[in-house]
């Protein structure tokens, strides 16, 4: 299994560019908001979440992680960091209390 981490960075004129992300520190929490079959779909989901839930996502950057094995490729869309599980879980509860086209799962880096 191979993994690469990428994130989307803001550029002038609202153009988005995918770059390799810095690793998140050990013991920090993130939330996973989706897993898509293509990179384009992952970016599309992130942009949709930013547009529909501006207050929740305005200070966050995505971390798009490619996981692949012999059977399939999955692009996981994660964001954070959050200081602890409660903060990550509270974010998920706020997100899921609105109509949303995504899930939300707190995860911890180890």
What does this structure look like?
The longest helix has 14 residues, at 39-52. The chain has a six-stranded antiparallel sheet. The chain has helices at 39-52, 54-57, 85-96; strands at 2-10, 16-20, 29-36, 61-68, 73-82, 105-108. Mean pLDDT is 79; it is low at 1-23. By secondary structure, the chain is an alpha+beta fold. The protein is globular and about 35 Å long. It has three helices and six strands.
In short:
The chain has helices at 39-52, 54-57, 85-96; strands at 2-10, 16-20, 29-36, 61-68, 73-82, 105-108. By secondary structure, it is an alpha+beta fold.
Rounded radius of gyration (Å): 13 Å
Distance between the termini: 18 Å
Order of helices and strands: EEEHHEEHE
Averaging pLDDT over every residue, what do you get? 79
Beta-strand portion reads 35-45%
Task: State the shape.
Answer: globular
Sequence of strands across the biggest β-sheet: 2-1-4-5-3-6
Count of alpha and pi helical runs: 3
Low-confidence runs of at least 5 consecutive residues: 1-23
Biggest sheet character: 6 strands, antiparallel
Helix percentage range = 25-40%
In total, how many beta strands? 6
